Amino acid sequence: MAQAKIHAKMNEGACSKFSRTLSMADRSGRLLESLDQLEMRVEALREAAAAMEQERESILEMIQSVQNSQEMRNICQGEREELTLTSNRLMGRTLSVEISIGTIRNLQQEEALQKATSIIDEIVKKLLSDMEGGRQQLLALHAACVTEAPPVPIDQKFQAIVISCALEDQKKIKRRLETLVRNTENAEKNIKIMDHQKLEDTKTNGGH
């Protein structure tokens, strides 16, 4: 009889322990599921912030394009002043939107980003003295950031540096180079248009 009670007590304890273990596993599973859902929301948040950051860059570039456009130079001074005030107001409002997305980097990635940024900065400084040469260098750097075979030579040294950067930094470097290339192409077009106008004016004045 006593032995039967002991066995019953042991079985009761085992069942109780087993129930507690299941309960803990269940709670752990629910917490893990919650964290998984939060992780998806965090990634969605970062993607949305990155999209907003790109939109901000795009708007700023378009405002600058309007300000430097040939159409802006071809209108009367009064209208140009009014449009300049409007574009400056839009520029200020856009710049007031601050978006910051932190990137977690190890030491190697930090150093790689600094090297890549320094290389691009040096080329940008040279653009004023050698626009075409600088543009070709920017194209070679951009070619190092794309997967498809580019029509221009690849800067392999820069490519090795970019590969060592964090993935988010690689995307930002590529976007910056794309913007710089577009800006240099637009600048060259504006210079050619202005030079062509100067030639036409010279011909016209010569004709008189």
TrEMBL record:
Keywords: Coiled coil. PROSITE patterns: BAG (PS51035). Gene3D superfamilies: 1.20.58.890. InterPro entries: BAG2 (IPR037689), BAG_domain (IPR003103). It comes from the Eukaryota. Residues 28-69, 167-197 form a coiled coil. Residues 112-192 form the BAG domain. The keyword Transit peptide does not apply. This is BAG domain-containing protein. It comes from Ataeniobius toweri. The lineage of its organism: Eukaryota, Metazoa, Chordata, Craniata, Vertebrata.
